Structures are given as structure tokens and as C-alpha cells.
Amino acid sequence: MADFVAAIDQGTTSTRCMLFDHAGDEVGKYQLEHEQLMPQPGWVEHNPLEIWDRTQTVVQSAMNAKGIDAADLAAVGITNQRETTVVWNRHTGRPYYNAIVWQDTRTDKIASALERDGTGETIRRLAGIPPATYFAGGKLKWILDNVAGVRQDAEAGTAIFGTIDTWLLWNLTGGTRGGVHLTDVTNASRTMLMNLETLQWDDELLTILDVPPQMLPEIRPSSDPNGYGHTGARGAFSGEVAITGDLGDQHAAMVGQVCLSAGEAKNTYGTGSFLLLNTGEELVRSSNGLLSTVCYQFGQDPPRYALEGSIAVTGSAVQWLRDQLKIIGGAAETEALARTVADNGGVYFVPAFSGLFAPYWRSDARGAIVGLSRFNTSAHITRATLEAICYQSRDVVDAMESDSGVHLEVLKVDGGVTANKLCMQIQADTLGVDVSKPVVAETTALGAAYAAGLAVGFWSSPDELRDNWHEAERWTPQTTPEQRDKGYAGWKKAVERTLDWVDVS
Questions:
Q1: Which comes out higher in pLDDT, residue 407 or 493?
Q2: Are strands 273-280 and 265-269 parallel, antiparallel or unpaired?
Q3: Which residues make Cβ contacts (< 8 Å) with residue 438, sequence separation at least 6?
Q4: Among 76, 256, 356, 391, which residue's beta carbon has the most beta carbons within 10 A?
Q5: Whole-model pTM?
């Protein structure tokens, strides 16, 4: 009898395997970090072979620690850092180049050229997203144009492309010995290459970005009873298990937070922050700098769509305080240090290290700390960092309400930053709405497990998932509307100071 579902959660800084029971409770976990490669300013890369090696290790370690084997698993789900791009040789299994990470800005001139030649609006109309360094299509074009031999091999069908889910699926199901070349609708929707209405690769978009169609994976639903293949006896799971769930990390978090009805929203605080609003079967086009994206698709049901605000730097701003400024020794210290001051002392920090994502989409922006005086200390900068996380989320919520006409009543939150109670209180204060954290905070992995388990009947329906959701903590606004507006006005002034810093023409 299979008692558990496994989830592989491959993130920007680490890879983990988590095991869940029928109640949606975590029963096992193992996690490993991988190296962040930054060969030039603005360039961020990962070694795909290291990620695959880490994946095998975390799967084996999580299962060994729990004392289970493949027969104990009903299914496997995968969730992943989304736009990160890999191109590899289908015959050798070797990547042609490191994975280009979603944070990487080397494609700024590609994105600018698409806007200048008038194809930006076509991309928005068909793919629901703007030309930006964020998305996989530009990264793929850069590899095709700059890495020797890739375009020739792509034309011949030897070089194949995928986001990290596709890379892992291919390896988990046999790699050069018959590995599947697949992705799901949520990951495909982040490439600038998929038509949001047909859920298929779009010929016009492929022509715009000059991508050979034969290098693209087949697109499947996020929860697929037909599956994404099986793990093998010699693979990471040391046995045959059906892989039946695949979602990009933020879409998985929507499922894990059980935001399955139109009007429900969540914010995941990781390296960046990602706020999604479920718009149901309606594809809502944004007029305010948000992304239209697939939220998820279960089997042959119609896809559910979402509006998304993607924020490049939130949790990684805290890492910057630790690793570059050395103000703190670890993320946990930020709360105590920030509480030593009553407010930000007039300091605002806009962490536009990779430009600004939603709702601004300004690749010319760069980070700035403004409002400094001799009075200010490291505590003020630390508090300003926590506030930056929350103000960026308010930017997105305001745009979301304008686009959808839906007034947010409560924001469900998850991710590492939610351990910082002060930050979550600041979030409630800046938004003016309650902030709610679930008992199971690892909602990204849980969502991947839910998608996989639904496909094989481990959970019978989404209603079972709703029954599993329980609130752990809630923060209620403690500021007045006047205080809220004054603080936000200072933030908007600070954002203006970051613009037009880099020439991307």
C-alpha cells in the first residue's frame, strides 16, 4: 500500500525532496544547496549537472531517513524555479552551457530590441507577458546565438531545451536511455513561446525569437493521470514510481495554499516574491504591469488562469545584508536587529539588483539606499530591507486590484521570510489587510505533491485539499491609513531614484 507522495522542489538556491502523507503533513525532508555562479555583473548561472546530482542525493536521503522505498510512494510531483533555462544534448546528456537563471539580466538588449521593433505587443497578446530578461525565451535565444554549435544541433534535433522541470524529468525517466522530453502548461507559460489560449507552442512567437520548434518539449497538464513517465530501478528512487505532477514553483504554491477559486491570492517569499491571484477560467489581460499566466491545469479540465506580480529581490536582499554588507550573521537576526528601532529612520532600500520586475518592468533600474543621514544605523537599513519586501508586494496588490476589480480581503503567505514575524506585521500594515500563514508553510512542495496525488486518486478531489489547510498565524494591520499612505509615498519616491541607471538601448 502506497502511503506517501514525494515532491521534488528544485529552487533557486537549493533542492529538496519532501514526503507527505494523506493529511498533507510533512513526514520527511532532505535539502541541499547548490552553487550560485556569477561570471559577470548581471549574469547568474547554475550547473545543471550539479542540480541533477543534488536531486538524486536529496531523494535518496529523504527516503532512507524515513525508511521507505519506491513501493511506499503513490506518485511523484516536481516543482521548480521557473524561467531558468537549460539546453543539452539528447544523445550525451551533457549541457551545452550552464543553466541561465531567471534573475540573469544578460538578455536586456534582446528584450529592448523586441520592444523597439514592435513585436513586444504581439508577445504580450499571445503569451501574456512582456519582453523581459526574466523569461526563458530570451535566454534560449542568447544560447542559440552565442554558444558555438547549439543552433546547428538544434536544427538537427540533437540540442533540446527545457526549464529545470524538463531537465529533471528527462533524467529521472532514463536520460539518454529513453528519458521523456516534457513540460507542463505553467512552466511553458513562462517562456514567451506558448500561446496562453491554445496552451501550445506558438509559431509566430517561435519565429520572433528564432527558436527551432524541434528543440521544445511536449506540453502536458500540471496534474496528469497519463503521467510524465516513471522513475527507473537504477534511478534516484531505486524503483518505478509514476511522475504525475509538474508545476512551476509559484503555481505549485497556489495549489499548496488551496487558492483554487477565483479571487483567492497568495504571496510566496523566497529569493524573490511572487503574488498570484486566481482568475478562474477567465484569462485577464493586465493593464498595470502584471503577468497573465496559467495558474494550473488538472487533467483534461479547462486551465485556470492567474494574474501574477513577480518581484525579483526580496529574500535575497536579506542574503545581501549577510553576505555582502555583513550586517547580520544569518537571516534570523534581522527581526531582532530591526526591532531595536521604532521605524526606518527615513531610510528606504530599493533592491533593484536585477532591475525592477512587476509592476514596473524596468531593466534599467539598479538598487539604491536613499534617505541616509548620520543618524542612521545598520538597524535602520535592516528594517528598510524588511519594508522593501512589503512595499514591493503592495505595488503588486494595488496593480492586481486595478486589473481584476477584486479587493483583497486576506493574503495567504508562505516561504522562508514568513518566519520573520516583524516582516509579516509590516506586510499587514503596508497592505491594510490581514496576512495569514498556514500550518504547513512548505506550500510549494506540498502543491507539487497535491498535483501528483490527485492524478492517481491518492486525494479524491480538491475538496480534500481544502480540508487539509489550517491557519497557523494571522497578522492584522496596526497602522492608520494616514501612516500607511505616508510610508508608501516615501517608497514611491525611492523607486523613482533607481530608474534610468543602466543604458539598455
A1: 493
A2: antiparallel
A3: 257, 412, 414, 469, 470, 471, 472
A4: 256
A5: 0.88
